[in-house]
Structures are given as structure tokens and as C-alpha cells.
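USER:
Class, as today's exercise, take the chain set out below, and explain how the chain folds.
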Amino acid sequence: MGVTWSPVRAGTLGDWDYDIVFSAEGPPFFEVIQGPAGSPWDATDGSRFDHIGYWSKDVVADKQRLAGRGAPIEFDSCPYGRSFTYHRLDSIGARIELVDLAVQPGFRDTWAQDIAAMPAIDLDDDPRAPSSGSPRP
């Protein structure tokens, strides 16, 4: 693919340990994440394209907007002290991830020091309104 990868890092969310890495080039960034069976990153059925991520100015409001538009919440990290959600979007056979824009500086410090700030998705209250934003890793 011609992608350069950053070093793999280990993380924990609740009872799940996982490994995560991002492409050095971006945006958009490629993310590879591996977690155990039963975790949000369970790959017991094999590797796959899993999600497209977006930065969100208000994950609480945006997750409800997506759910109301037919992309149900599949996993919510908020009870674990984090601020991202996965929403099933059957039309693309994958999930949409919303990540709190407030954590973007930490993402940039860890994974992409030389890039400019990335915009958040705009999920206007009117579902017919066009959405804008740049994909997150």
C-alpha cells in the first residue's frame, strides 16, 4: 500500500487490552487496531475494513443524531471514561466512529506532530442538510 506505519502502541479500555497503530501519512490516516474476542475490535471472524472515523465537536449530541438517522450506536466508550462511539452503517458494511475533537491535540502529539488541526464533522439537525468534515483515522 506504500504506507509508513508509526510504532505500535498498547492500550486498555475497560477489561480489554488492545494494540493500535496509525499510518504516518495523513490525513486521512489508516488505523489498524487489534483487540480480544468480545471487545469492540473483535476480529475472530477475520480482518476487515471496520470503520471511518470523524472528529466531533459534541459526541453526545452527534451520536444521537446518527442513531436517529438510522446508524444505531454499536459501541459507546463514554461509560469507560472515553469519548468515542461506533455506529453501524449497513449501507457501507462498516461502522462510523465519532471521536471527541477535544482529544485531537493528543492524537496529533502522539501520531501526527506535523499536521494542521483537522475539522470536525457537521451533523446539522436537518438530516437533509449536507454534512461536511474530514475523516479521522
In short: The two ends are 16 Å apart (CA to CA). The beta strands are 9-13, 16-22, 31-34, 51-56, 73-76, 84-89, 94-100, 135-136. The chain is about 15% helix and 30% strand. The domain at 9-136 is CATH 3.10.180 (2,3-Dihydroxybiphenyl 1,2-Dioxygenase; domain 1).
